[in-house]
Design a protein that fits this description.
Largest sheet: 7 strands, mixed
Number of helices: 25
Shape: globular
Number of strands: 18
Pathway: Amino-acid biosynthesis; L-methionine biosynthesis via de novo pathway; L-cystathionine from O-succinyl-L-homoserine: step 1/1
CATH superfamily of the largest domain: Aspartate Aminotransferase, domain 1
Function: Catalyzes the formation of L-cystathionine from O-succinyl-L-homoserine (OSHS) and L-cysteine, via a gamma-replacement reaction. In the absence of thiol, catalyzes gamma-elimination to form 2-oxobutanoate, succinate and ammonia.
Organism: Neolecta irregularis (strain DAH-3)
Pfam families: Cys_Met_Meta_PP
EC number: 2.5.1.48
CATH topology of the largest domain: Aspartate Aminotransferase, domain 1
Radius of gyration: 25 Å
Number of domains: 3
C-alpha cells in the first residue's frame, strides 16, 4: 500500500535517500492513524521515523548482530552509550514494572562491548586510536513497554551513526568484551515504534559477520558515508565549535544594544560571564531536559516541579515519572501564575519551573518577567526550552537559570542528525552548585560523527532562521503563531531587534473531517519533527497525544490541529507572484467547490499570502458533535493519569473564544468569486511547492540527498 506526498511514498525517509533521516513521510491522515494503531502494513514499509519513537534500521541491524553473536532469542535488549545510563534504565524499569512482571527486574543484565580502531590519518598526521563503548541491557519481554518508555522519554539511547560504527567494527575487526555481569547471557530483540498502540514484531533476519581487518578501509568507509573527508578525530573540534557557536550567539544577544525591550537591554549588558564551558551537548533535546531535571533533583532535593504552559508531550512525562511528580498549569495564563503564587505562599517547596518559549504546538509565550520574580522570591530554578523561539530570535538568558534546546530542529535544519544543548546561566544563584554537579555527573554521549554533521549543518543557522521568519509571516491568518498570539507581549519582551517569530504555525479546524481533507490535499512533505530546511507538516495531536486526545483537547490541543514548520523555500514558491491571485490563494484545499464537503463554507479555507482582506474564522462550537469527533480517533484503553495535583484552570474547556473576540471583522472576497478561482489556485499551489524536490540548500546540497556527502 502506498500513498504519496510531493512524490514521497508513505514510510520513506524525509529527506529521501538519507540513511540517518529523522523524519518519515506520512502523507495522508489515515497513514498517521494507521501508524498510531500499529497496523502491520505501515510498519512493514517504514524506512525511517523520529529516532526516539522509531528505531532506525541501522540500530536494528546492530541488535540482530548482537543476537546472532551472543544471545538467547527469548530476551529483548536496548543499547545505551554509557554504563550510568544503563543503570538508570534498570532503576526506571524496576520502579514502573507492575507486581506481576516485577519479578523479572532482577534478571536484567548488562554487557559492555568495546570497539577500538586506528586511522591512518589524524589531526597530527599520525596514528591515533578511537575507542567506543556500548552497554547492552537485556530483559524479559514482559518489561518491554516500560523499557520503551525510558528510551522515548529520556532520549538516552545510541544514535544510528554510532550503531553504524559498531556494525562496521563487528564486520571488520575483533572486538573486546567485558561483562559487567559475568554470568549474563546476551541477546537482542526488535524494538518497535513509540507510535504503535498494538505491538508489531518484525521478523528477525540474519546478519553475516566477517573477520576482516579495518586499517586501510576505515577512512574510506567514513569518507564514503560522511563526505568532505570527514574523519573521526574532527569530532572534538566540531564539539568545541558547537559550544563556541551557541555561547557566542548567546553572548552576542546578551550584549545587544537594540533589543526590543529596553529594560532587557540594560539587564543584558551585565551578562558577560558566559563562555563555551557553560554549554553542554547532549544526543537530543529531550536528553538535555531529562538531565537538567535529574541534576536539579540531585542538588536541591526530591521536590515537585512546576510545568507552566502546555509543553511538548515528553517534557511533562519526564517531570511526572522521574521524581516526585509535577504541578501542571497547562494554559500559561496570568490566573495560573496567581495560583502558583498562592501555592508557594502556602509553604510548598518547588524544585523548578519548566516552560517553553514559545510552546509547542500552541505557540504561547510565558510571562518570563513575572516567573523570574517568583523564582527569586521563592528560591526555585527556572528552566526554559527555547527550541521553538531559538536563541537567534529571543533572549531568555536574563530570566532562566538553565536554557535547554533541541539542536535537531532549526539549528541543524537538514533533518539528518539529532542533538541537544544545556546552557548554564553564569549569573544564576544556582550556578556554582550546578557547575559542580555537571563536573561530577556530565557525560558527553553525543556521538562523534553526529557532532561533525551537526556542526556543519549549523554554520548558517542565524541566516536560515531569518529567512524562515520571513517565510512564516507570509503564511499568516488567525492561527496559532507568536506574532498573533494573545501572549505576543511576552514574546516581544524577549525578542531581539530585527528578529522574527520563528517558523512554526499551528492551525485548528472546526472538525477532524475538515482537518483531514486539508491535510490530505497539502502538496507538501508530511511527517514528524520540525525546524527542517524544507516545509514540513504533521497532524501533531495525533502523533503526540493519540492515547490522551480528550485530555489534550482540554488545553486547546485538539485532534483537528495541523502543525506546519516553514522552511527555506523562496517566498514566491510559498505564495503567488500575482498579487490578485495571492489574495484568493488557498493552500491547495478545494473545500468550497468539493461536492463531498458542501456543508463547509468559504470561510473555512485557510488563506495564504499578503492579504489586504481575509475571512473571519467561524467561532468554535463546543458540544456533542465535537466530542464525538474527538472520540473517533481516541483509543479504547484509558489514558494514564497525570501525576501531581491539577490546577482548577485545567477543568475548564479552552474554546478559543477570547481569540475570536479580538479578531477583526474583515471583508471577504465573495464566495462566488472564490469558488470560481479555487480550482485554478489549487493547481497553482501544487506547482509552487513542487520546487521542494529541487530545493537547493545554501551549501549546495539538494533536498533529496541532504546530506550524506
Amino acid at each position: 500500500m502506498t500513498t504519496a506526498s510531493v512524490g514521497i511514498d508513505v514510510g520513506n525517509e524525509l529527506p529521501q535517500d538519507t540513511p540517518h533521516a529523522i523524519s518519515v513521510s506520512l502523507p495522508k491522515w489515515s497513514d498517521n492513524v494507521a501508524y498510531e494503531e500499529g497496523e502491520r502494513w505501515i510498519h512493514e514499509c517504514m524506512k525511517s521515523g523520529y529516532p526516539r519513537f522509531f528505531i532506525n534500521p541501522i540500530i536494528r541491524q546492530l541488535g540482530l548482530a548482537c543476537l546472532q553473536k551472543f544471545g538467547k532469542p527469548e530476551e529483548e535488549a536496548m543499547i545505551f552509550p554509557s554504563e550510568q545510563i544503563s543503570q538508570r534504565f534498570k532503576q526506571f524499569v524496576g520502579r514502573y514494572s507492575d507486581s506481576l512482571n516485577g519479578r523479572f527486574v532482577s534478571d536484567i543484565h548488562t554487557v559492555h562491548l568495546l570497539a577500538s580502531s586506528y586511522t591512518n590519518e589524524s589531526l597530527d598526521h599520525g596514528k591515533s586510536e578511537l575507542t567506543a563503548h556500548i552497554f547492552v541491557a537485556f530483559f524479559h519481554p514482559s518489561l518491554s513497554k516500560v523499557a520503551k518508555a525510558f528510551w522515548q522519554h529520556t532520549g538516552e539511547g545510541i544514535s544510528s551513526r554510532m550503531a553504524e560504527y559498531f556494525l562496521q567494527q563487528l564486520r571488520t575487526s575483533k572486538h573486546k568484551q567485558s561483562a559487567i555481569d559475568p554470568n549474563s547471557n546476551m541477546s537482542f530483540a526488535h524494538f518497535h515504534s513509540h507510535y504503535a498502540r498494538k505491538p508489531y514484531n518484525a521478523e528477525k533476519t540474519t546478519l553475516s559477520i566477517t573477520q576482516e581487518t579495518l586499517q586501510s578501509d576505515h577512512l574510506t568507509y567514513l569518507e564514503e558515508h560522511y563526505g568532505r573527508n570527514v574523519i573521526v578525530q574532527l569530532a572534538d573540534r566540531a564539539k568545541t565549535a558547537l559550544r563556541q557557536r551557541i555561547s557566542g550567539i548567546l553572548k552576542q544577544l546578551s550584549s545587544h544594544e537594540s533589543i526590543v525591550n529596553q529594560d532587557l537591554a540594560l539587564q543584558s549588558r551585565q551578562w558577560n560571564g558566559l563562555c563555551k564551558d557553560d554549554v553542554y551537548l547532549y544526543p537530543c533535546g529531550m536528553s538535555a531536559i531529562y538531565n537538567a531535571h535529574r541534576i536539579l533533583l540531585n542538588i536541591i532535593g526530591e521536590f515537585k516541579s512546576l510545568c507552566y504552559g502546555f509543553p511538548y508531550s515528553d517534557t511533562l512525562k519526564i517531570l511526572d515519572k522521574f521524581g516526585p511528580g509535577s504541578y501542571f498549569y497547562g494554559f500559561a495564563s496570568s490566573e495560573e501564575l496567581d495560583q502558583i503564587e498562592r501555592l508557594l505562599n502556602s509553604g510548598e517547596k518547588i524544585l523548578a519551573l519548566f516552560c517553553e518559549a514559545p510552546s509547542n504546538p500552541l505557540l504561547t509565550t510565558p510571562d518570563l518577567s513575572r516567573i523570574h520574580l517568583l523564582a527569586d522570591k521563592f528560591d526555585f530554578c527556572v528552566v526554559v526550552d527555547e527550541t521553538i523561539g531559538t536563541f537567534a530570535n529571543i533572549n531568555v538568558l536574563p530570566y532562566a537559570d538553565i536554557i535547554v534546546s533541541s539542536l535537531t530542529k532549526v539549528f541543524s535544519g537538514d533533518s539528518n542528525v539529532m542533538g541537544g544543548s544545556l546552557v548554564l546561566n553564569p549569573r544564576s544563584r544556582f550556578y556554582q552548585r550546578l557547575k559542580k554537579a555537571m563536573k561530577l555527573e556530565y557525560e558527553d554521549t553525543l556521538w562523534l560523527t553526529d557532532a561533525v554533521h551537526l556542526e556543519r549543518n549549523s554554520r548558517d543557522f542565524v541566516d536560515r532562521i531569518h529567512r524562515i521568519n520571513s517565510n512564516a509571516e507570509m503564511l499568516l491568518k488567525r492561527v496559532y503563531y507568536p506574532k498573533i498570539n494573545p501572549s505576543r507581549l511576552f514574546y516581544d519582551h524577549i525578542r531581539l531587534e530585527g528578529a522574527g517569530y520563528g517558523g512554526l504555525l499551528s492551525l485548528t479546524f472546526e472538525t477532524v473531517g475538515q482537518a483531514k481533507s486539508f491535510f490530505d490535499a497539502l502538496p507538501l512533505p508530511k511527517g514528524p519533527s520540525l525546524g527542517t530546511n524544507f516545509t514540513l507538516c504533521s497532524p501533531y495531536t495525533l502523533l503526540a497525544h493519540y492515547n490522551e486526545l480528550p485530555w489534550a483537547s482540554n488545553y486547546g490541543v485538539e485532534a483537528s490541529l495541523v502543525r506546519m514548520s516553514v522552511g527555506l523555500e523562496e517566498g514566491n514558491q510559498l505564495t503567488s507572484n500575482n498579487t490578485n491571485r495571492a489574495r484568493n490563494y488557498t493552500i491547495g484545499l478545494n473545500l468550497a467547490s468539493n461536492p463531498t464537503h458542501t456543508n463547509i463554507s468559504s470561510t473555512d479555507i485557510i488563506p495564504i499570502g499578503p492579504w489586504s482582506s481575509r475571512p473571519p474564522r467561524r467561532k468554535m462550537q463546543s458540544g456533542d458533535e465535537e466530542a464525538e469527533e474527538a472520540q473517533e480517533y481516541s483509543p479504547s484503553r484509558k489514558r494514564r493519569k497525570t501525576t501531581g495535583p491539577m490546577s482548577s484552570v485545567q477543568k475548564r474547556k479552552h474554546s478559543g473564544s477570547e481569540e475570536d473576540d479580538t479578531e477583526e471583522e474583515l471583508s471577504t472576497t465573495s464566495g462566488e468569486n472564490e469558488a470560481a478561482e479555487v480550482d485554478e489556485n489549487m493547481e497553482l499551489a501544487r506547482r509552487m511547492v513542487e520546487s521542494h524536490r529541487d530545493l537547493k540548500q545554501s551549501r549546495g546540497g539538494k533536498f533529496a540527498s541532504a546530506d550524506m556527502g
